[in-house]
Amino acid sequence: MRELPSLNHCSTCVYKNLLFGNLNTEDLNFLNESKKEIEFKKGEIISEEGTEITSFLYLKQGLVKLYKKNPLHKDQIISIAKPRDFVSLLSIFSESTYKYSISALEDTIVCSVDIKAMKDVISRDGKFAIEILNKMSKMYDDILETRFEINKKHLRGRIAYILLYFSNHIYQSDEFDIPISRREIAELIEMTTENVIRILSEFRKDSIIKIDGKKIYLLEPERLESICKLG
Amino acid sequence: MRELPSLNHCSTCVYKNLLFGNLNTEDLNFLNESKKEIEFKKGEIISEEGTEITSFLYLKQGLVKLYKKNPLHKDQIISIAKPRDFVSLLSIFSESTYKYSISALEDTIVCSVDIKAMKDVISRDGKFAIEILNKMSKMYDDILETRFEINKKHLRGRIAYILLYFSNHIYQSDEFDIPISRREIAELIEMTTENVIRILSEFRKDSIIKIDGKKIYLLEPERLESICKLG
DNA sequence: CGCGGCTTTGATGTTCATCAAGTAAAGTGG
DNA sequence: CCACTTTACTTGATGAACATCAAAGCCGCG
User: Fold this and answer.
1) Is there a single domain that holds both residue B120 and residue B178?
2) A125 touches chain B (CB under 8 A)
3) Do residue B137 and residue B195 come from a single domain?
4) Which residues in chain A touch residue B133, judged by CB atoms under 8 angstroms apart?
5) Do A137 and A157 reside in the same domain of the chain?
6) Between 20 and 30 A from B156 (CA), which of A47, A107, A120, A141?
7) pTM exceeding 0.85
């Protein structure tokens, strides 16, 4: 973890329009003043459940996992988030301490805005408030939907789902390095590590995918689609 | 479904402080004007997924279920809500159509406020906006937590969980009429109807509960607690 | 170099869904 | 109000899906 020299102003940020697009100059400057850019190396913990929430975090670059800790190395991963996902919106307005932990799956840069400053702006800009409501609601709906989706599938369907998820939503490619371990896949789609490996091997034997350590090639994405759909 | 003569003003509502406690008189009157009280009989559908959201619904009396429809009588019940729960906050700000259906499990009275009026007030009262954010976030966090809780349990643990849920959170009593069918229990805690019945019978044979149709008596809630905890 | 964590495969048993079949209850139309 | 139909509830038998246990190879790291 390392604070970066803050060279960029929010007003020129490529992600400005995602959330801050309609703010007036004054409010944007106000937020920018309390803003810090922080770099986290792969594996570092960005926020830990139970600790106090002091800032609104905004994922600028990288990939993170959002999870709940459990005893005995059996965490529950709630979701994977990339830039444009509003990770930090979860429970930030309902609790004074984090309900979930966040850690970096890749080298990651987050923008951190003081939470009080954020609430100030929400309080005085109603349109902004509505926008935050929208984003938050979408984010939660999405997570809920995904959880139900995953839970009603059989294990093969879950693996297919998660492979397609990485391919379509994260990497936009049929080949990619899986950013998480087999165990983490298990923690994400609620099954055992052994079965993750077993089913990946099955898919490999059936020539649906090719595996080389962390590297995955989707040879027949259409078959994955149908395995995913049929459960 | 029947619109009730609107005798009560929001300002004198027992639930006013839950959400509208800090509004100024003007805004409260404004909301009150667009407010309708509607009664739904047990079994009636309050809102249906896919239809347009035109109002913010507020559960004043009764009990409802929130669910997603599935083909072949296998819905997914997302949660049960009673007065004080902000059912209608789910996805109301992220979508123009309902993402979930809501139906009445008991005779129910809802207050319906025009959604535009609601957004107007949120836009001009920042503190109110923050409050809505809080409530919404809490509601979602709660549902998410419950889903993970249920999913990591075995079937006996799930049944124990749901019995304790009705006992502790809905009826505050060791005996109560279950407001939902065996199939709906199954849809709520993700198992089959047959197994719901089987495990209820087990609990009955073990004298942990007593069953008389819809009437349930928790004879040994402590044992249920431990079954629930141990999974 | 050895230790711990990650990965892999096989064998085994448990949990659970599915199928089948029957009774009870509730709603429907004549 | 009664025959009829549908829906809810119940129990048992069976097999499939899955977790658990065990053991071994691999890799990175101090």
Assistant:
1) no
2) yes
3) no
4) 93-94, 122, 129, 132-133, 136
5) no
6) A141
7) yes
